[in-house]
Amino acid sequence: xxxxxxxxxxxxxxxxxxxxxxxxxxxxxxxxxxxxxxxxxxxxxxxxxxxxxxxxxxxxxxxxxxxxxxxxxxxxxxxxxxxxxxxxxxxxxxxxxxxxxxxxxxxxxxxxxxxxxxxxxxxxxxxxxxxxxxxxxxxxxxxxxxxxxxxxxxxxxxxxxxxxxxxxxxxxxxxxxxxxxxxxxxxxxxxxxxxxxxxxxxxxxx
Amino acid sequence: xxxxxxxxxxxxxxxxxxxxxxxxxxxxxxxxxxxxxxxxxxxxxxxxxxxxxxxxxxxxxxxxxxxxxxxxxxxxxxxxxxxxxxxxxxxxxxxxxxxxxxxxxxxxxxxxxxxxxxxxxxxxxxxxxxxxxxxxxxxxxxxxxxxxxxxxxxxxxxxxxxxxxxxxxxxxxxxxxxxxxxxxxxxxxxxxxxxxxxxxxxxxxxxxxxxxxxxxxxxxxxxxxxxxxxxxxxxxxxxxxxxxxxxxxxxxxxxxxxxxxxxxxxxxxxxxxxxxxxxxxxxxxxxxxxxxxxxxxxxxxxxxxxxxxxxxxxxxxxxxxxxxxxxxxxxxxxxxxxxxxxxxxxxxxxxxxxxxxxxxxxxxxxxxxxxxxxxxxxxxxxxxxxxxxxxxxxxxxxxxxxxxxxxxxxxxxxxxxxxxxxxxxxxxxxxxxxxxxxxxxxxxxxxxxxxxxxxxxxxxxxxxxxxxxxxxxxxxxxxxxxxxxxxxxxxxxxxxxxxxxxxxxxxxxxxxxxxxxxxxxxxxxxxxxxxxxxxxxxxxxxxxxxxxxxxxxxxxxxxxxxxxxxxxxxxxxxxxxxxxxxxxxxxxxxxxxxxxxxxxxxxxxx
Lengths: 206, 606
Hints:
Strand content of chain B: under 5%
Shape of chain A: elongated
Radius of gyration of chain A: 21 Å
CATH class of the domain at 63-206 in chain A: Mainly Alpha
Largest interface: A-B, 44 and 59 residues
Number of domains of chain B: 1
CATH topology of chain B: Cytochrome C Oxidase, Chain A
CATH topology of the domain at 63-206 in chain A: Four Helix Bundle (Hemerythrin (Met), subunit A)
Number of strands of chain A: 0
Strand order of the largest sheet of chain B: 1-2
Strand content of chain A: under 5%
Oligomer: heterodimer
Distance between the termini of chain B: 38 Å
CATH class of chain B: Mainly Alpha
CATH superfamily of chain B: Cytochrome c oxidase-like, subunit I domain
């Protein structure tokens, strides 16, 4: 015990070999849970569509653009992570700022995309359209529900990035303290890939 | 690696540090205290759920009779001493929700996973004590929200614990569809949060924090069961979360995921295009694994208790692990057997039927292994052991009717009849309750340092067993006779009049069973304060929790955590002096048996 406390570089003699850091497993399990929750939503979509009486619509180009935004944001995150590995601390901050900026752009574009859908009489819930008809597109409701739940995941990711950014300003992110940055970047890539998957799913599974 | 430092700091912290009342008893991060919090909350919820069942049993047995006490207790929910039909439905719904989620999911798994995972794997606390605390308080909040729905004007949710739309999706469908249903959903969302936080914590702790020498194949079966329970929770609760969110959208934001065209008084509602069946798919995709989330911890506890009290190694350790895995894996592919009457494609129905039958294999493996473990063992009939044997009995009885209901051709006539009620109450309701009680009797000395009174324990066991069989066994015949479940009274149908006496008999059974739990409650509370002090290892068990000192300290063991040299089932070894060899006995004292010797040491065979 004494030995451990003074020199915690030695792997824990107290335990069996660890698979990876606890926090990393926790994050992965959260992501698994999240995948299952989107799995539930997309399966519901498939089951409902298979039942017939399903109206399709074109997805506004803005959501396609957002896939690019996701990639840019992920690229910034990778830049931050690589910089941290070489102790280029200033660049870590630039990378994180970039990732967050593109994250915000993503959110704004999503909102604009939803507005555009509304202008085509596609709503989350039934509304009176301009010609007085009640819009009853269940496929639209699914689109809004799925993208909105993803939206919340992105906001969570931004909060995560903000915490890491504050750490970076406190000089707590560097070559030998990469865990929080690495976890944030894993999560950030995850929500990015999730969007690209959801986009492809919603666009082509029609 | 930083864990070591923080772990040690924690440990030292609490040896020298006096905690305030709030941090010790309320917002505690110690797994032992959190386990007690789960247990006490679970027991209170269990008491409420049980009382509800006695109330609606009184209504079913004597639908014409007036109970003036109801008027005082329920106010406007009762007229002239009769529970109102709305309130009856609410009682049934709340009973189901409370028992399935709050008692048998959180109460059972929360209590014993928290208590036993750190103790039995030899670590000082959970991977994240903070998330662990959060998980309890989410559960507590969720319980409070659910209970508060009893006091809203339109009453609690009353569309059944499975909350099928449209009753759950249209706030005006029936009284309980209003605020009560909203509160039900909010409670459930917090509950799911609690389960996820807890489950993730359990998995990480088991994977990463086992003490030196404790390989996965030397884990007690309790830990294996808790592990797969947590995995099932992580995989299935998010799906219910998604489903519940869609239900919230339908209720509050005017979407129609679960609502197709509905006409009220000839007027079409604005909703269109949804499907109520969708909810059933999402619900039962959780709902079936949920059954195993309930039963697996009970089976794990029983494995441990049966082996200890038979003074024999558990029979077929690896087969037990395999069957836990098998049950867990199959559980994701059988949800359709709850939906045979939804007009499902017969091919899909046959597939669900076939996979459902496969569940019989691992279940039978477990049953036979329990029997083989007890066979010619030196059985100690402690109350815990009796409840363990009781669980095996109930598991067999209920499992057999599962074969009836898994068969689509038989399920369709039996669907929503008392046969179903009998089946699931025996196989996963009562047997999991027996597992919970088995665990409480067995680990009470570990939790509170005192013994429970065994005589009252025996009385509790026999009354419970008789009560359970009196209540649920006759229900099979009622179900075969076509009596439907969830009916307020059967007075309007002549063909059900022959069951009147049976209903009275069942209610007497319920009263016997419920009184037994009051005896238990008395024993439990009395023993916490005034029970006889227990010794460190009262059952002469092998697992690590009994190597920790009696007074509970933060960090569990003063000094180093024990090292493990063997599997946990070295009972009655002919080459050892005592009839048990705890896991931390080194192999130069008693050689490690061939069963779980590390590679290269196989020649140590005994």
